[in-house]
Amino acid sequence: MDVSLVPADTSEDVRERGAKVAVLPVGSYEQHGPYLPLATDTLVACAVARELADAYPVRLLPPVTIGCSHEHADWPGTVSVSSVTLHAVVRDIADSLRRSGVDALVVVNGHGGNYVLGNVVQESSARGERMALFPAAEDWETARQRAGVVTSLLTDMHAGEIETSILLHAHPELVRPGFEAADFVADDRRHLLSLGMSAYTASGVIGRPSLGSAEKGKELLASLADSFAECFALLTAVTVTVSEDERA
């Protein structure tokens, strides 16, 4: 694991900070065409999580680096875990955090195929636990418009303008030549879950990476940090229970 992805906190740092909200980046290890690394989704999730930690009093956790990437199995290098495993890992992390006094968890998802994370949050919230999934599609849309990203979220599905821009900003040394001429569009992907990515792209790319830039990547992250304010407020709100005697 890249040591830059691991927070450098000591136990004393954590105790002194006393943050009640933790941020967990969850990515994947899957093909991203010939120019972005297998760890792209993890790197994106970590870049978003770091941006949040720089702007809010949260506890930044190291990433979950392998997710549910079964639709990419036809490409060498892709590694997946089952949805049951990912569900259990996030639940166990949340339980451990609560035992140590951290009551809320934000799951920063970097991979669209990690569908089960939505279920984890739904189930936890129904039990009265504080958990959120970030960014939402609306947060990405706001960021896309603010950053001047031309490609729609539908078209920019994989290794496209957004992911290329964020890596050009956060990890330019990991972006190989070739993204400038790798654009490929496949907006109708209705059978993706049945057929996998290889039914829609030979290169592994669906999007317009040629339009990516470091400037767009920086603005995307800044916008997401601003959008997180509402999520943070929701998780840190104090719920006041009024007794029957107080109502009278």
Automatic annotation (TrEMBL):
Gene3D superfamilies: Creatininase
Pfam family membership, one: Creatininase
GO MF annotation list: hydrolase activity, acting on carbon-nitrogen (but not peptide) bonds, in linear amides; metal ion binding
Keywords, comma-separated and alphabetical: Hydrolase, Metal-binding, Zinc
Domain of life: Bacteria
SUPFAM superfamilies named in the record: Creatininase
Key word Transmembrane present: no
Coiled-coil ranges from the UniProt annotation: none
Cofactor: Zn(2+)
A GO biological-process term: riboflavin biosynthetic process
InterPro entries hit by this protein: Creatininase-like_sf (IPR024087), Creatininase/forma_Hydrolase (IPR003785)
Annotated family: Belongs to the creatininase superfamily.
Protein name: Creatininase family protein
Organism classification: Bacteria, Bacillati, Actinomycetota, Actinomycetes, Kitasatosporales
